[in-house]
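hey can u run this one w/ pyridoxal-5'-phosphate bound, need the structure tokens asap thx
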Amino acid sequence: MAKINENYSKLPGNYLFSEIARRIQAYRAAHPEADIIRLGIGDVTQPLAPAVVDALHRAVTEMGQAETFRGYGPEQGYDFLIEKIIENDYKPLGVQLDMDEVFISDGAKCDTGNIQEIFSQDSIIAVTDPVYPVYVDSNVMAGRTGVLGADGRYERIVYLPCTEANSLKPELPEVPVDLIYLCFPNNPTGMTLKKDELKVWVDYARANQAIILFDAAYEAFIQEPDIPHSIYEVEGAKEVAIEFRSYSKTAGFTGTRCAYTVVPKTVMAYDSDGKSHSLNKLWLRRQTTKFNGVSYPIQVAAAAIYTPEGQAQIKSVIDYYMTNARIIREGLTQAGFKVYGGVNAPYIWLKTPDNLSSWEFFDKLLSEVQVVGTPGAGFGPSGEGYFRLTAFGSRENTERAMERIKSLKL
Ligand code: PLP
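ok here u go:
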């Protein structure tokens, strides 16, 4: 008899986005004329940069000619892209990487979800709360978390609350942990850590033989000069950190799919005899067995981001989103909300007024001003009482939404 992986039964189901869709649908059914503005989406709306599109066309033409056709590529990615990443994304930060420390993939979602496979089943994981749900769910599927309690927390996960009480910055765990997921700039709170704040985590990991899984998917949105773009800017991080990056938000690749993960050869973990092993080797083994590489045209398209035109074009799109972020921040502040994020990230995290729950505030925004966002409770128990808006909409919709929110009766 084929039996299922019963760990899947421990997942609560994709309640958040299906519940949002259900409530919008119910509102639309009752108010067919309603003009609903969605500021909840985590997907980009601006098209690919012209330099990227040109490169894609050229690569597709190559694939259609016998002399330049390519079949399977290297699982870890083509050298031409890895060279550009090292030269442009790391060298200027003073970070030296070898070619075999960068792994091209089809998304940071897959990589942050798959990375847990190379760690022991009994690893204790720590996550910030609220959190990008993939880190939690992938460990639930792997059987590492125990069951979900009535308080919305899994038995064996260590939650690091990020609330107003600690300025939305995680504090070191009080019990020993093995794997620590950090995401900065953060989804959903939009918060960042300065170098000395990140160093606390690197020092902790070095002292406790723990590993930091650092999700830098929103690195390109950093505007302020004193915020680290990579965890490797912190001394010692190359011994304890794996870093994930993505072209999804950086360059509009959410539908095109390209990302990369850095696993320095100096990052070690231990077997049950206490012998150290290179995680780079394990990840290579995992990827070469289960992944067959990102397609050639997509890697050529990603490499085009690093040309001078490509850089200018993607910067102007990021500026566009960050202007939206400023409009949202300022609009909400004028309307009397307590607002976080939106300075170095495309996410704005607000405290709901009058102690409304996240879902009560969702209903109020939808019914009174027809604006949709994401209830903070959907990102973890400590997200209750907060709400996420995103800067990925069009300028027009962002401005209209803010005018409407300012008219809200609080
Ligand atoms: N990491 C974080 C924190 C995200 O918010 C997202 C997407 O929303 C991802 C990773 C996924 O990125 P990708 O499109 O590269 O899979």
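The longest strand covers residues 241-246. anyway lmk if its weird
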